[in-house]
Amino acid sequence: MPKVTADSTTITLPDGELELTWAAVTHRGRRRDVNQDAVLAQFPLFVVADGMGGHVGGEIASTSTVARMRELAESGTITAKALEKSLARAVKDIASHPDATDEATGTTVTGVFLDTSRDEPHWVTLNIGDSRVYLVREGMIAQLTTDHSVVQELVAAGRLSPEEAENHPYGNVITRAVGPSESVTPDYVRVEIVPGDRFVICSDGLTKELTDYGIRHFLDENPDPADAVRAMLEAALENGGRDNITIVVLNVGSAPEIDDETDEDATDTAEWETVDDEDEESDAAAEPAAQQQSDGDDSSTAPR
Ligand SMILES: [Mn+2]
């Protein structure tokens, strides 16, 4: 298990100071020979990049893109315009390795940055590809980004249910990427700064192994971002680790207290779908062993 440590900084807002704390990890997973994911968690920019393409092409795409993102983070103030310029430079970097890259080489780039270029500071999510940004606010988890994938397009067109999408054979096919044959304009979502918010930025190696409920569960259990990142990585590996796994957790202010309804007794028994049901919960607390899955499936030991 790689070492994960938290980092922090204090930002000044019109109505006072706010501490940001974050942690990040990237891991090869259990089935892939190399890690083609890359990550940057450097205030004010937090991004993951999931490279694709044979040979070392995918690795070149994701590391070049993250290097340009690091350069941007170090420049201080980030705007959409500056970001798109950096991505255009990353495309040139990728194309400058003609032996290793081709039309099929590319990378996702997905994350969040603090925009202080206007009067009122705010978060902006950015996305190209099928890595994701989630936000947990007041106990609810929401996916802020929309995947650029064949499967997502089929779901949006009503031709596939979200359940059918989960293990679809075209699950890995994305419709937009940072790469030689692409334009590099991300989708953006503007997000208000709210103390207690927690962002999760991740590659599809996490979301193949954990559902939204699973992600929220590990956040609830782990107020510290480094602990949350570690717990999610462990669970994703335990559930199969079929792809490279990259996770960033960013806390805005301190993580909120979790109320009694999602206490350890209830969640440890894998009952998150029904934590709101008081009867189920007391049953689970009385008989924890019976609530564990025991069908021998190797992917059932950690919550999804
Ligand atoms: Mn991936």
Automatic annotation (TrEMBL):
PPM-type phosphatase domain: residues covered: 21-252
GO molecular function terms noted in the UniProt entry: protein serine/threonine phosphatase activity
Biased composition (Polar residues): 291-304
EC class name: hydrolase
Database matches in PROSITE patterns: PPM_2
Bias (Acidic residues): 257-284
Keywords, alphabetical: Hydrolase
Annotated spans, Disordered: 256-304
Pfam families with a match to the protein in the record: PP2C_2 (PF13672)
Alphabetical list of Gene3D superfamilies matching this protein: PPM-type phosphatase domain
Organism superkingdom: Bacteria
EC numbers on record: 3.1.3.16
Name this protein carries in UniProt: Protein phosphatase
Gene source species: Microbacterium immunditiarum
